[in-house]
Amino acid sequence: xxxxxxxxxxxxxxxxxxxxxxxxxxxxxxxxxxxxxxxxxxxxxxxxxxxxxxxxxxxxxxxxxxxxxxxxxxxxxxxxxxxxxxxxxxxxxxxxxxxxxxxxxxxxxxxxxxxxxxxxxxxxxxxxxxxxxxxxxxxxxxxxxxxxxxxxxxxxxxxxxxxxxxxxxxxxxxxxxxxxxxxxxxxxxxxxxxxxxxxxxxxxxxxxxxxxxxxxxxxxxxxxxxxxxxxxxxxxxxxxxxxxxxxxxxxxxxxxxxxxxxxxxxxxxxxxxxxxxxxxxxxxxxxxxxxxxxxxxxxxxxxxxxxxxxxxxxxxxxxxxxxxxxxxxxxxxxxxxxxxxxxxxxxxxxxxxxxxxxxxxxxxxxxxxxxxxxxxxxxxxxxxxxxxxxxxxxxxxxxxxxxxxxxxxxxxxxxxxxxxxxxxxxxxxxxxxxxxxxxxxxxxxxxxxxxxxxxxxxxxxx
Length: 462
Prior knowledge:
This protein is of the alpha/beta class. It has helices at about 25-40, 50-65, 135-150, 175-180, 240-250, 260-270, 275-285, 290-300, 345-355, 380-390, 410-415, 445-460; strands at about 70-75, 80-85, 95-100, 120-125, 125-130, 160-165, 185-190, 195-200, 205-215, 215-225, 230, 310-320, 325, 330-340, 360-365, 400-405, 420, 425, 440. Strands 1-2-6-3-7-17 form a six-stranded mixed sheet, with helices on both faces. Helix 1 packs antiparallel against helix 3 (about 135-150), helix 3 packs across helix 12 (about 445-460) and helix 6 packs antiparallel against helix 7 (about 275-285). Residues about 1-20 have low confidence and may be disordered.
């Protein structure tokens, strides 16, 4: 079914000859310095949100780097902003190439961190601070790379639009606004999230993955209501018990395992890089999505279960109104990550069948999410990414993947704009603290990341 896919993915991984990384010292220094300034700005949703300050910081850097002020737009939106910076191409008949990112970050409580999350620190070879990985350093790498290309005299044929949203970590409304504004784009490259993987023991690059699909985010509220009563007169129809039974049914249920061209290629190729048992299950699943033994092995691995189908899990429960009263209401939130090709209403209908109780009301309470199909396997994109990575690390496996979370790419895919994710940063899985405590990224990742972007951007804008 997916035989043609293997032509685009590596079928055998040669021994890797590691090249000396050619540096661009001015661009690398600018990316780090700008990232430090951006991390110091607390661009968190709610009171004191400094996303607008981040946008102004980025705007000043771009103007100093050769952009015209009239080609930069910062647009207020509720408690945040979004921005675009346009570098006009020489051929206006070509659709624009969008480089996408976000300026906001997840909340971080200073008391929980070893260092203040909004005081950037470079220590022991790492940049520490909220946004070091997700994704202010990626933002500034993109900015510095574009300025470096201008400095070198590069002229794109295709217009390049740098687009940064301001609420990707919360409502995602500015990502939708950007997609509406740029719905005529020819391609989107989202540089969010450290897609290069370093070996845990040696620290050497193991592989690079790029994304062409992502699962849709959905929240469903399950509610049971009841007349209630005095707790000294218990009845069988207790709202808490009834909701609990429904939740256990959801826990035991597995949505149909499935694959698409992206996940098929991922399992075929990434299997060679995983421990023997897991790798064998990945290979078996790629060959037969009904292989029960493979499904059991993959489902037991938290990093893999989301790659083989839709997942739904209980995340919040609220019930009762008094310690000495029977509950009149019990509610729970079920969070689902929906495999591409299924709508949120499809999954809601399936959950209703799983719960099998008409007293349990289910409603979609999702905010800011749409279900989309995978982007096409565009050979110009796959060739550009492979060429860029191999320019730094010859022979390194370059593997397609599907994101199990949500990103602003979904809004562009909803407009049928081919959208891909490829962050040039390399990091160890054990040191990836996106959304977590003590977020950090190796400073050494900046040089290779810059080289990768300085290859990809000209390839995709010509």
